Amino acid sequence: MSMLVDVLKSFLMGFFDLVLLPWHIYQWWQLETVKEKMNVLMLAGNSSEFLCVVLAIMSIILVIGLVKHSFLRSTVHGLELFNGRIGQFACWFALIMMLQQVLIIVMGQVFRGNELLLSPFGLTLAFGELQWLSGQLKLYNAILIALASAYTFIEGGHVRVDLIYADLAYRKRKVLDLIGTLVLFFPSTILLWWFAWPLAMNSMFSQRPLNVWSTKASWRGFKWESSGTAEFTWVWAFKLLIVFFAGLLFIQAFTFLLRNIMALREKEEIEAHPKLDPVEKAPPVKTDADTQVVESAK
To answer: Which of 223, 248, 247 is nearest to 236 (CA)?
Structure first.
């Protein structure tokens, strides 16, 4: 019982911290050294106060959406558009990955070289060893997965094992989606952020190592962790992408929650996974037979 009371108090404090957020930002800005500012940022990103402020914002949006249906619809559309545009941008890395792979094969197998130099008119634009460029393909793949997973969810492209879902009635499917979002989708994204944040911070900055229970930080400078091999060595970039992955999926979980609430309130059926950019259907072409039918009707 006491644990439930503590959780409720923390949740209510999130509204209080949200009101005082401009004051907290001003206080942070007035800190004298960069070290103090970075210490606050690193601890804030993995704190319960930050989570409660986010939950407070979500609660306010939800309440306004329940009262004003147009706000709910525009919020769902706006958040899906946000995640969708990021995902569509990330999809270009599939093309970059393919082109770079072709160049690596041509340079290595045809010209028997071990490096790639792009220097038109004597101006060096790109240079790298093939081993480094081969490892860089892993980063493109990680960007594609981390930034486009939420967009793939919007489009309904993830693999889904269906045992009973398809046989349920429309409203029962929406209720099941709602429960699944609250019980599985939200907790998994929160836990992923909770564990990924200290990994990314420890990889990017030189400091006292953080963990999920850290209450103190001692930032000293930038670190940019690397693997120490001849391949692509930006280890910090892969760990930072996990944070982006968790954040975008959390936003999509909230969007999916709002979409199912909107579907339960409306009488007409709403797609759970709408196409972000549906192909516009061309108007039907009128034939001579159609014209004759119209004239006879007149």
So the answer is: 223
